[in-house]
Amino acid sequence: MDTINSEDKKSSTQNLEGDVKFSTKNVASETIISTTSDLITEDQSDDSSDSGYNAPINRQVEVDSLGRAYGTGKRKTAIARVWIKKGSGLLRINRKVIDLTTLNSVQLSIIQEAFAVTKSIGEFDVMCTVKGGGVSAQLQAIRHGTALALLRFNPIAYYASLKKSGLLTRDARRVERKKFGLKKARKQPQFSKR
Fold first, then answer.
1. Which fold has domain 69-165?
2. Handedness of CA 112, 116, 121, 123 (dihedral sign)
3. Which pLDDT belongs to residue 55?
4. pLDDT for residue 106
5. In whole angstroms, what is the distance from residue 185 CA to residue 168 CA?
6. What are phi and psi of 69, to 5 degrees?
7. β-sheet bridge partners, residue 97
8. 126-155 burial by CB neighbour count: b if 16+ within 10 A, else e?
9. Helix (H, G, I), strand (E, B) or coil at 162
10. DSSP assignment, residue 140?
11. Distance CA 19, CA 11 (A)
12. Interacting residues of 182 by C-beta distance below 8 A, sequence separation 6+
């Protein structure tokens, strides 16, 4: 490779190996591209599963000194703060231990969906506090928080299955606000021709 003088730096093109000409801007962008491609290592490129989702590059295991992982789940106006740790499948909501046999099948399936997708039912104790919303929104907020906590507990093993099932995405649907001149958000008063 030729050495570049100060006069050559001023010119817009440079003669590099193989008589290929790059402008100064192109050379700078080449270095940026090469540095961003260096972020993916061979280990991470081989971890691809059959679903096509790779573990995110910048995710790390985030567990506190007590062995708990944390996730904040939201749905409509409900907010759930969820902590999970290795255990026997105990569920504690707002400081009350919930017996899983008292929940109906729909409620149980919503709470355990993240564990079912990752094939870890009964392996984690769940402790959460929930505020706002109704029963349905609170259960779905717990599901979202549990999925995020599982992702922080072991991102390499759980990311692909959680992402594919859509549990990491917050459901942003909310009640539409009422408009003036209308009875509800979209319902209009009955039309009278005369």
1. Ribosomal Protein S5; domain 2 (3.30.230)
2. negative
3. 56
4. 96
5. 29
6. -110, 145
7. 92
8. bbbebeebeeebbbbbbbbbbbbbbbbbbb
9. helix
10. H
11. 16
12. 188, 189
pTM, to two decimals: 0.69
**Residue 129 φ/ψ, nearest 5 degrees:** -120, 135
- Hey, how many other C-beta atoms are within 10 angstroms of the C-beta on 76? 18
Q: What six digits make up the tokens of 61?
A: 């295991």
| 10-residue stretch averages of pLDDT, the chain, 194 residues long | 48 42 39 34 45 64 93 97 96 94 93 96 96 96 97 94 96 96 96 92
Cα–Cα distance, 128 to 68 (Å, whole number): 12
Q: Where do the structural domains in the chain lie, given as residue ranges?
A: 6-37, 69-165
Cα–Cα distance measured from residue 130 to residue 115, given in angstroms and rounded to the nearest whole number: 19
Q: 104: helix, coil or strand?
A: coil
Residues in the chain: 194
Q: At 36, list the tokens.
A: 């961003």
Q: CB neighbours of 25 closer than 8 A, spacing ≥ 6?
A: none
DSSP helix/strand/coil, 82: strand
Cα dist from 103 to 98, 111, 136, 148, 164, whole Å? 8, 10, 13, 23, 27
The amino acid occupying position 191 is F
Q: Name the phi and psi angles at 159, rounded to 5.
A: -60, -50
Report d(CA 124, CA 127) in Å as an integer. Answer: 10
Q: Which tokens is 13 given?
A: 């093109």
